[in-house]
Amino acid sequence: MLIGIFAIYPFILTLINFAAIFWGCTDFRLIRKGRHFEWITLLLGLLYSLFIFPFSDITFSDWTVTLHNAQKHTPIWTEGALTVLILAAVGILGYAFLSCTRISKVPPLITVLEIAAMYLGMIQCILWIVQIIRAEIFSMYLCLFPLNCILIGIKVIRQKVIEWEKIQESEAQNAGITGKFKNRYLEWLNRRLEHSSVWPAAAFLLMWPMLGGIICILVLFGQRPDSAIRAWTETSDWNLSQKIAPQNIYYDEHYLCTVAAGGHRKVVKPIRMGVRHGHPVIVNRQLCVANAFEQILEERMPDVHRKIRYFYDKYGFPVAKMIRSPYIADAVYFLMKPLEWIFLAVIYMTDVKPENRIAVQYLPKKMK
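-> structure tokens emitted (368 positions)
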């Protein structure tokens, strides 16, 4: 069931949305069912993306920050993220108005402006896909939601074009549909848009002044005029990136506590760098306590230690390798807290100088 929900169902929804572009634009009943699938896709796509994102190697750190192991810098420059979010929001609003409005009740010019707004959102989806696409499972899943948004946008635009053509076929229905503008230039433009076949091209032309207006407004809120472009290029590790980030620091990632120490500094509170099996590791209090406990267990109960070590090596390593995000590392840190307290209690009950034993963990041999 879990495999179906998280692995198969997103692809099934994608195929349904793709098929709806060709077969769901003429039949009114199919259009109503298709709208249900649209809302399901948008809701589940957002939830799935939020669920998958922490398990990916993507962080919210700009290219100037030094990361660890396979972590990747943010695919969207943080200083330009507001521009990307606003353009995506404009696209969502365009879709909402176009999808929920009866096309016979609004002038064609308004419909074309809504399509232009959707174009801005769809372009952000395309840029996201081009930016992060890689031959990797998490990357593919993070591309599914924006891909479905593009498919839904194409379908809705095609539906409205066909719907308007059907309305135009009947002179009785066509009477008074186009609306009136007090401005004669707007009225002239509105009449030129009475033929829905020109809507996609006209929306593309109107998209540029709309984009310019949005950028001018965003400049007043501190965004750069070129943030719409720099948001994607002022990055590292990605397909559109033009920056070279500092080399990542590599450390042993086979142990849960070791990985947990790689979480956010304010959460896991690292105290120094250490060495495990010749690899550098980030050392915090929890990691030292866990290793000191294992050391005591190995000294006092070697047979039990051997069995526990075998079990952890078999099942713990695969789990630890899945922790690729500092947010998941933070969660593991908190999950390990009860065990840390138990380990600490055992250390204090069995060692004469417990803090000394804890303090020397992961120090190079020449320093011990």
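The first helix runs from residue 2 to 23.
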